[in-house]
Inverse folding.
């Protein structure tokens, strides 16, 4: 075929495309029409295949002519596809039962923050309102910060209270968030108001309320004339705000080498309303907020004069508080990937856990 004949044939094909495509009103039909023109065996496709039959010096020009025609045909076909899609959407929007493409996506399929994270963020907001700063410390901690700086020297029996993961580099996976007390004293001096939420690790036997990986929130206030009543008042206010109702608390003496005196503040078990269950080990109470007045040795280790300042500290069991808030009876589900509902059906009133219903 000469170049002139080729040009004439391409004009014919363009005419056929422009009239043919307008008669089609289904996407599928346009697609098969497209392949009858542009596909390998289509009218333009075959012309492209035949380029090799032209003398080498003509092939460039032939290719250019055919590709121009191909681009025009493609543009006409695409324009028709667009038209059909728009017409379909218009028809669907006139039909009330059709999908409304402007509506937001389904909320069902969205995830949520982890329950512990939700409570942590809530606690941070509460304390920030009271003028606390939120501090962080490393999960892999120096032995000194985890123990010695907190008045627990190497030979002190209190080291046995926290079964520790020791690392080959001599450090430990922190057993509590209390080392952040020491870090904060060194960093800011006195007066001081911080909380430090974070993950802790203990070589524990697991049960409904003990995990080897769990969260605490450390709190530390150092100022003039800080006292135990301040600590108890703050604890009550905090737990009331997080639980969104008054909860029964029990205060008893507790021993921690880094406080003197030391307290255990327990919360009425929200799973069984204090009747006794596996979560509270049949006691009706959950250990949630050990606390006390900062020991003078800890102030000295942190570079603070114990004759000038006093302070209180607490170590809130954040994971257990999340369990109480959301009625989760077994701590182990919180570190598992099991997404089935985990909320206790008998739990007391209060907030529900996002899309997890019973
Ligand atoms: C401590 O860890 C102290 N550092 C707390 C403290 C800070 C006392 C400041 C005084 C002053 P204890 O080992 O009791 O204390 O842990 C504190 C809380 O963390 C417990 O009441 C409990 O709610 C939670 N907790 C402890 N061990 C686990 C565990 N294995 N799994 C889940 N939660 C735990």
């Amino acid at each position: 075929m000469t170049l002139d004949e080729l040009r004439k044939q391409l004009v014919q094909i363009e005419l056929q495309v422009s009239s043919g495509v307008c008669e089609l009103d289904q996407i599928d039909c346009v697609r098969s029409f497209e392949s009858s023109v542009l596909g390998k065996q289509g009218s333009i496709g075959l012309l492209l295949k035949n380029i090799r039959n032209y003398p080498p010096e003509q092939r460039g020009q032939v290719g250019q002519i055919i590709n121009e025609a191909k681009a025009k045909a493609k543009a006409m076909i695409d324009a028709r596809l667009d038209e059909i899609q728009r017409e379909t959407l218009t028809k669907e929007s006139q039909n009330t039962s059709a999908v409304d493409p402007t509506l937001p996506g389904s909320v069902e399929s969205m995830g949520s923050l982890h329950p512990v994270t939700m409570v942590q963020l809530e606690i941070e907001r509460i304390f920030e309102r009271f003028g606390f700063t939120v501090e962080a410390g490393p999960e892999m901690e120096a032995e000194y910060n985890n123990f010695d700086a907190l008045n627990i020297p190497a030979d002190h029996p209190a080291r046995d209270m926290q079964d520790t993961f020791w690392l080959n580099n001599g450090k430990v996976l922190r057993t509590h968030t209390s080392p952040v007390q020491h870090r904060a004293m060194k960093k800011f001096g006195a007066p001081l108001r911080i909380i430090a939420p974070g993950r802790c690790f203990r070589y524990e036997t697991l049960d409904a309320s003990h995990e080897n990986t769990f969260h605490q929130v450390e709190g530390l206030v150092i100022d003039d004339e800080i006292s135990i009543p301040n600590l108890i008042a703050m604890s009550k206010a905090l737990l009331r705000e997080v639980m969104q109702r008054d909860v029964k608390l029990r205060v008893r003496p507790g021993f921690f080498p880094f406080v003197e005196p030391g307290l255990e503040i327990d919360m009425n078990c929200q799973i069984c309303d204090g009747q006794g269950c596996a979560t509270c080990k049949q006691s009706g109470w959950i250990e949630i907020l050990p606390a006390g007045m900062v020991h003078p040795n800890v102030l000295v280790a942190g570079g603070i004069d114990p004759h000038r300042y006093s302070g209180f500290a607490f170590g809130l069991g954040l994971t257990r508080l999340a369990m109480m808030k959301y009625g989760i009876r077994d701590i182990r589900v919180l570190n598992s990937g099991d997404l089935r509902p985990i909320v206790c059906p008998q739990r007391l009133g209060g907030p529900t856990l996002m899309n997890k219903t019973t």
